[in-house]
Amino acid sequence: MAQQRSAAASAPSAQNIHLRYGVFVHGYHALSADADYVLQPWGYGVETHLYTVGLASWFLTLNLMSSTQGRFNGDDVAPISFNNSGFAHGEEETTHIDFDLSGPHVTVLLPVEKQREPLPEPELKQSIDMLSFLVELTHRLSLKHDCTLSRPIFDGVRLSYLEVHGPSQTTIPKDHGSYFKSDALKCEFTGRQIGGFSLSTHFKAAQSSPHQGAVWFVHDQQGGFIPARVEFAHYKLGQILVVLQSAPKISTVVRPQTH
């Protein structure tokens, strides 16, 4: 009986998938990103770490930890909370957002933001965080082999709108140290900022203009569909490339059970 209780208490409940990416700006490896996520039938959890590397760290310092958790509702996601904290733009930053049926609620925002234009309420109410959007895209692709999706995205300050369509069958490019060199499904997207513009910005026209991008998914025997490459245009930095550079690491998550 004791053995049965012990086995139940240590029953594996899910798997954690760890991914490591290189982030290239104009072809130069300026940042690295680590991601860990757990997907279960009822919901998800994601943690990411984005940081400067190499010569880029001589000129700027960026070290940000982000996390989100939420539930699945059929094809859709319902985020519960999002957190982002660390060092960027020369200072410590912290953002925490709670989500409910009425939309996102920013409970922590440091430093206090400068004056910005109002956020459009209908889109804000429907918005989710960026990590939850990526989970939803992966989830939809896994369930339906479809990545047609459009959503408002909120980071606590800025509101954007992303539209994705596809996928198309292709081969993942082999450049920039890509770990995968195999067939892939490519989803193309368009993004633009729709709210939260700084009152003093000189870039509103560029920020609100559509910017093109694409994400390549590969199918891993253990990890399922995995985002292996992302390309997109940034209104200020130009072309940005994110490449998965090492094998996915899969580990078992054991959830203790209480009786």
UniProtKB/TrEMBL annotation:
InterPro entries: DUF3108. It comes from the Bacteria. This is DUF3108 domain-containing protein. It comes from Bombella intestini. The lineage of its organism: Bacteria, Pseudomonadati, Pseudomonadota, Alphaproteobacteria, Acetobacterales.
